[in-house]
Amino acid sequence: xxxxxxxxxxxxxxxxxxxxxxxxxxxxxxxxxxxxxxxxxxxxxxxxxxxxxxxxxxxxxxxxxxxxxxxxxxxxxxxxx
Length: 81
Prior knowledge:
The protein is 9% helix and 22% strand. It has one helix at residues 32-38, and strands spanning 8-13, 49-54, 59-64. Strands 1-2-3 form a 3-stranded antiparallel β-sheet, with no helix packed on it.
């Protein structure tokens, strides 16, 4: 039986927003798909948070605005990101 490895998570903050790898534009907030499914308007705030989950064999990268950053990735009060 294979055990799933818990990812190592790195959270980064860039106040001006994150640029896409091809430098074509700023990254959109990752919650826009879920917002559309819920009938909410798309997020227009800049994606200022990047969450990288390292699973060893692959990475997942998510971009979030301040409002939509998942609670488990929020910096502790008093700690800088």
